[in-house]
Amino acid sequence: MTVEADDRDPPPDGREGSWLACVECGTTFPPFAAVRYRCDECSGLLEVRYADPPTFEDFRGRGRGVWRYAPALPLESGVSLPEGDTPLHRVPDIREELDLRALRVKHEGMNPTGSFKDRGMTVGVAVARRVGVDRLACASTGNTSAALAAYGARANMETLVLLPAGKVAAGKVAQAALHGARILEVDGNFDTCLDVVDDLATRGEAYLLNSLNPFRLEGQKTIGLEILESFREEYGTVPDRIVLPVGNAGNTAALYKCFRELAAAGALDPDDVPTLTGVQAEGAAPFVEAVEAAADEVRRWPEVETRATAIRIGNPVNAPKALPGIYETGGTAVAVSDEEITAAQRSLAAEGVGVEPASAASVAGLRRLREDGVVGADERVVCLTTGHLLKDPDAAAAAGADTEPVPGTTEGVLDHLKG
Ligand SMILES: *Cc1c(COP(=O)(O)O)cnc(C)c1O
Ligand SMILES: [Zn+2]
Asked: 312 C-alpha vs ligand 1 centroid, how far in Å?
């Protein structure tokens, strides 16, 4: 009996009527003709644009998950594990405590490698196959590397990840290692790792899959599409506000792009666009600093520290795309302490929702803004929880209850329970 030597899908077709455009000067480029991360003219960030953005009708009958939304993506199909279709949990205790009209938690930790990064990688790694590169690379605070390692393995491509030495949660390093990425532990913080990998990519040594890569953000747009579709189904309307943790601000940029495209297609009333609200940790809050100053640029913080390692980032590279998203939706940004983050992690866990510290920042931020009266009781809010509890077992154990040593007998256990 003969077996097909290679049953992987061929590289996917690109969508007609899509191109790359510079967000600063508007210069356009064909999407797959060459590897390009920035504008040739002014080095501005690039984004994917479509001649004909889809409406919700175009997604009907297309199944669930990221590729349901293929009409909104630059490719017809991707390297898929599959990803997306994450739960929109009810959290009645937190809703009641915060006295909100509605509160839902979109748990992105339920993606195949345990974070929303999978939504970007299913598109980004497919584009890498389409343009014909042979080595993938990223800098990472952990989750990007776990996702890239898995999707790179799925696509059978060499994968390189650069991590800040000693600053990545255990679950994430283990994932990258087992999926077969080469892990380079860099003597420096995340921002240093990104500078280096950006340089490697510019020199043609590897294909860059950080959120500077405009194709990754296309996949992440589907978080917004899922939220709006589910919300409309259940409440007959869209949420008033979406609260999310901010690291490189890629997700903030992706959600804003999602809403803009829907508005352009006539599928979302511009007055109904949810208010985007970003949350950072106090020790790593350059984006919040910029929003508080109503600035259109972010000042890089050379030193950053927080136990929410996924957002331990001092130079949010997608700020030029994300700041307009905050301003134009009437949103805001807020910084919370590590203690507030851990308290929110416990509140979510008490409702059965297990998240890593960075994810809990969204709920911590909402709690703060509700106390300050910035968020009103009449609002319907969605908090994004970006990564799974098991990503950072040390943080979970530290935030949770202590173990209780007991003897190995039933009587001994009963005595102990009686206290
Ligand atoms: C990557 C990541 C973030 C930050 O997202 P950005 O798009 O970079 O702002 C937040 N939380 C978790 C768990 C992440 O993995
Ligand atoms: Zn430009």
From this structure: 9
Pocket test for ligand 1, best of 167, 326, 386, 392 (most atoms within 8 A of CB): 386
Pocket test for ligand 1, best of 110, 116, 258 (most atoms within 8 A of CB): 116
Report CA-CA distances (Å) from 98 to 93, 291, 339, 363: 9, 24, 18, 10
249 ligand 1 Cβ < 6 A? yes
pLDDT digits (tens, 9 = 90+) for 302-337: 999 999 999 999 999 999 999 999 999 999 999 999
3-state secondary structure string, 278-309?
EEEEHHHCHHHHHHHCCCCCCCCCCCCCCCCH
Residue 7: pLDDT band with limits 50, 70, 90: low
> Range with the lowest mean pLDDT among 97-101, 166-170, 222-226?
166-170
CATH architecture of 117-214: 3-Layer(aba) Sandwich (3.40)
Q: Is the peptide bond before 10 cis (omega within 30 degrees of 0)?
A: no
**CATH architecture for the domain at 88-114+217-399:** 3-Layer(aba) Sandwich (3.40)
Ligand 2 centroid distance, CA of 54 (Å): 26
Q: Which residues lie closer than 8 Å to 343 by C-beta, 6 or more apart?
A: 364
**Count of residues making up the chain:** 419
> Which ligand approaches the C-alpha of residue 244 most closely?
1
Fold: same for 88-114+217-399 and 117-214: yes
Question: What are the domain boundaries of the chain?
Answer: 88-114+217-399, 117-214
Q: Which residue has the tokens 């009781």?
A: 377
Q: Cβ of 85: how many Cβ atoms within 10 Å?
A: 15
Query: DSSP character for 40?
Result: T
Question: Does the C-beta of 140 come closer than 6 Å to ligand 1?
Answer: no
Q: Are 181 and 160 in contact (CB under 8 A)?
A: yes
The number of the ligand nearest the C-alpha atom of 25 reads: 2
Closest CA to 107 of 282, 226, 214: 226
Q: Computed over its alpha carbons, how large is the radius of gyration of the chain?
A: 21
Read off the pTM. 0.96
Q: Is 111 in the pocket of ligand 1 (CB under 6 A)?
A: no
| Structure confidence by residue, pLDDT tens digits, 24-58 | 999 999 999 889 999 999 999 999 999 999 999 99
Q: Distance (Å, rounded) from C-alpha 296 to C-alpha 275?
A: 18
CB distance 310 to ligand 1 below 6 Å = yes
